[in-house]
């Protein structure tokens, strides 16, 4: 999977034009606020995803312009293809190979990509919900049906929690909990099993990349943490039975709390370097390296699932990394198409093979 050209018109602060990236590493450098992240964002939007910066469509249109257009030509599924999105006030049109699509989400799976931005450091720094979202989003890219499974679990969880809040006022409703507990345990066990299998593969790949990034000095471990003990997670049936028994035994506590206290909605990932928590003991560079390793590993697992190499989009990736780690990112993952942004011109001099673009005031050279 390779981007052969990217065209933009009225998009953010980028000067109207077109670029032709190489199939390997493409580095975009320049001082802050010149438009580097805007370019990465454009590629990410054309993969069918929402802005990783949380931007509204109206924010993507250059000040003073009536509309914005981004268009990409890429090679995928053994043929040349194109995708285009046009943003105008209150309207968005999406095209795939010249055919209008009902929504930009129709591009999902056509141009696969993995993105890293400084915001993704929340995988290490923030609470469990960020890590659960990362795992679930990654699984959905290679197993779309998992999204429906998650939605059904969330609906069931919301209904059980509403019932828990009603029971103190209507005690006769307590008998109805049995059916909800059984359904929730069955759904939860399936989600836990799927997550565990993915995390195991992710850990194997991420550990390998982190070993390279750290020059063999650090061992990265990623462990799925759940209230369901590990010995009960050997099969979905054992996990289901444990969850159901727990929900039954802790029913009074759940009623008092007004919420469900066990299940995949409360699980987490333990991310460790050399046996110690990265969140608590890791430096800024180590935290960044961990997230980068996880993101590159995510890309590898997508490749294994779809038999195509996704794009790797790395925004502001080189800051807070020492020269050895920068060298690895610039020159050791060149067997796929990579887009990297950075500020320091000195950093990009380490690039041995690839293409350099300088961005100044939205103009790409």
Structure explained in plain terms:
The protein is α/β, with parallel strands linked by helices and 365 residues long. 41% of the residues lie in helices and 22% in strands. It has eleven helices and 15 strands. Strands 2-1-4-5-6-7 form a six-stranded antiparallel sheet, covered by helices on one side. The chain has a six-stranded mixed sheet with strand order 8-12-13-3-14-15, sandwiched between helices. A three-stranded antiparallel sheet has the order 9-10-11. A hairpin with a 2-residue loop joins strand 5 (79-88) and strand 6. Helix 4 packs across helix 5 (177-213). The mean pLDDT is 90.
Give the gist of this structure.
The chain is an alpha/beta fold and 365 residues long. The chain has helices spanning 36-45, 122-125, 128-142, 145-166, 177-213, 236-249, 251-257, 278-281, 284-306, 323-331, 345-348, and strands spanning 2-9, 17-19, 25-29, 67-76, 79-88, 91-96, 99-101, 113-116, 220-225, 268-273, 276-277, 311-314, 338-342, 355-360, 363-364.
């Amino acid at each position: 999977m390779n981007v052969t050209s990217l065209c933009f018109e009225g998009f953010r602060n980028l000067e109207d034009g077109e670029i032709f990236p190489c199939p390997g590493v493409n580095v975009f450098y320049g001082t802050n606020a010149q438009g580097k992240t805007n370019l990465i964002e454009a590629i990410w939007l054309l993969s069918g995803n929402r802005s990783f910066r949380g931007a509204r469509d109206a924010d993507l249109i250059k000040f003073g312009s009536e509309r914005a257009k981004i268009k990409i030509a890429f090679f995928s599924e053994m043929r040349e293809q194109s995708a285009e999105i046009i943003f105008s006030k209150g309207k968005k049109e999406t095209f795939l190979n010249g055919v209008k699509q009902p929504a930009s989400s129709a591009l999902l799976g056509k141009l696969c990509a993995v993105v890293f931005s400084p915001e993704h450091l929340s995988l290490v720094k923030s609470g469990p919900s960020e890590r659960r979202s990362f795992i679930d989003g990654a699984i959905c890219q290679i197993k779309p049906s998992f999204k429906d499974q998650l939605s059904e679990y969330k609906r069931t969880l919301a209904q059980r929690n509403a019932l828990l809040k009603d029971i103190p006022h209507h005690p006769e409703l307590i008998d109805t909990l049995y059916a909800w507990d059984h359904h929730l345990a069955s759904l939860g066990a399936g989600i836990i099993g799927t997550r565990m299998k993915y995390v195991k593969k992710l850990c194997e790949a991420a550990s390998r990349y982190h070993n390279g990034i750290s020059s063999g000095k650090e061992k990265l471990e990623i462990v799925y943490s759940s209230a369901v003990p590990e010995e009960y997670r050997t099969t979905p049936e054992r996990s289901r039975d444990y969850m159901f028994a727990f929900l039954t035994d802790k029913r009074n506590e759940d009623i008092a709390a007004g919420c469900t206290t066990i299940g995949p909605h409360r699980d987490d990932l333990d991310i460790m370097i050399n046996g110690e928590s990265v969140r608590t003991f890791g430096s800024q560079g180590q935290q960044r390296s961990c997230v980068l390793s996880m993101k590159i590993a995510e890309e590898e697992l997508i490749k294994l699932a779809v038999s195509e190499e996704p794009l790797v989009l790395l925004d502001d990736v080189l800051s807070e990394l020492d020269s050895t780690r920068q060298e690895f990112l610039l020159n050791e993952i060149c067997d796929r198409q990579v887009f990297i942004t950075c500020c320091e011109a000195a950093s990009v001099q380490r690039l041995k093979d690839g293409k350099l673009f300088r961005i100044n005031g939205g103009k790409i050279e």
